[in-house]
Please model this.
Amino acid sequence: MKKSELTAFIKEEIKSSLTSEDTQQDIKDTEELTKAVADLAKAKEEAGLSEENIGLADIEEMGYEAGERAFEEIKGRFLNQPDHQAYRKGFFQGYIDQAGVYGLNEAEDKEPSKADLKATKGLAKAKEELAQLTKQMKSLARDYKEAEGAEKEKIVADLKKKTKLKKELEAIIDK
Model:
């Protein structure tokens, strides 16, 4: 086969493979997918959504504008301060409750109280004391192996006192 005949044969093979049913189906699938992507982009644009990253200041501004719209909607319904206060309280509570449903409750993010901090410090202190006591007891156990007579009795008595204290510390930590 000559080079020109081979080139012509390859061109025909490529053309025939490009016009096969599989290729036509692939083209149709690609067109449908392209249309779906375009529809999605249009829907996002209509909804005011975009792919870009929104900063916290922008989100805060969105919230401010939503608050303004909510107020404009109800401003003529209440004629006195107590009515407005009651509505505002209910409005905020509704927002907080809905945020809680989605795991966005602000109450979970608040700073710990002084009592919480004091309890945490007390727990940390108890854990530290327990660690030190355990270390002392292990040291006494090593000394017990080498001790004899009255010295052994003294170490046993000391270990019993420390065991009682250890159980108390463990009870505090377990609470």
Remarks:
- The helical segments are 3-18, 21-47, 56-74, 81-101, 114-146, 150-174.
- The radius of gyration is 38 Å.
- Residues 9-47 form one domain.
- The chain has three domains: 9-47, 56-109, 114-174.
